Amino acid sequence: MSLLKPLKIANLTIDFPAILAPMAGITHSPFRNLILLYQKPGLFFSEMLSSKSVLYEDFSQSIYLRCIDSVRERPIAYQIFASDEESAFLAAKRLNKEEYIDIIDFNLSCPAPEIAKKRKAGAFLLSDLDLAFKILKAVKRGLTKPFTVKVRIGMKEDRELLKDLISMVEEAGADAITVHPRLVKQKLKGKSKWEYIAFVKEIAGIPVIGNGDVKTREDFFRMLEETGCDGVMIGRAAVQKPWIFGEISEKEYEITPDFLINLYQRMLELYKEFFPPEKALGRIKEFTWYFSKNLKFGHHFASKVQSSKSVNEILNFFKDYIKSCF
């Protein structure tokens, strides 16, 4: 870690430039506290949040907004998506008032049909940069805190259009940009093209955070070296391996059945304590899809969990199943 350069976003200095990505349904407070058992990332993210929902959620009660530990879960960025200027401005203004929130991030990268197609937000806005610019400017008007934006490389591979996108994000007042180097239509399929992160780093006047296909400590350092980016954002690999930030920090773990059982059991405890029962089971099932990749024939375990009716049923099955994997 001593060789890593700090990431500076406006007035915020992030000493460890390894960042937990925002993931809907995943990067809530219980998951962030699971990550904390192993190694704190340089920057946490919230789940992706609807700008309109931010306006009426109770911060002290909301499963999307509140923190179990607002001291240890910092620094933290809250990410919003919006399709209109007004809700974007009001949501940013409201988040800006919360002392424990360090950065507000805007999503121009989500390709999910529920967001991009139905709500005309997320990656959809890459097809209308004029509207995207107006919305980003509205977010910026609501903030005194650092402002970041996450993007994909576009609807098609075109470096001139990508230049226009980066220029627009900078002109709107962003303090840093995260680049996920896939096209919108690719979603999470195909190999991410890190050369586009390097290209953005060459042309951008603000810090650039790379994201995509970082699955190991070696990938983390390779992305830094190959692209010159200022920070690395890790998503799905951190759900599969909540200890990945520890590995990047040169901590060593022996991945035994007991190690995985203890981790999974602690996850269940955190989720049960935080979520109402009708929400906990769904979030546990979502986590398990990723975590099961640590197991031989893990997809069988994940499928079994999807049909489970209780947390205790899941834990008992997991303890029996994992012993057959080693």
UniProtKB/TrEMBL annotation:
Keywords on record: Flavoprotein, FMN, Nucleotide-binding, Oxidoreductase, tRNA processing
Swiss-Prot/TrEMBL cofactor(s): FMN
Family per record: Belongs to the dus family.
MF terms (GO), sorted A to Z: flavin adenine dinucleotide binding; RNA binding; tRNA dihydrouridine synthase activity
InterPro entries: Aldolase_TIM (IPR013785), DUS-like_FMN-bd (IPR035587), DUS_fam (IPR001269)
Ranges for domain DUS-like FMN-binding: 19-310
Organism phylogeny: Bacteria, Pseudomonadati, Acidobacteriota, Holophagae, Thermotomaculales
Chain residues that bind FMN: 22-24, 79, 150, 180, 235-236
Oxidoreductase in keyword set: yes
Signal peptide: none
UniProt function note: Catalyzes the synthesis of 5,6-dihydrouridine (D), a modified base found in the D-loop of most tRNAs, via the reduction of the C5-C6 double bond in target uridines.
Native species: Thermotomaculum hydrothermale
The protein, known as: tRNA-dihydrouridine synthase
Active-site annotation: 110
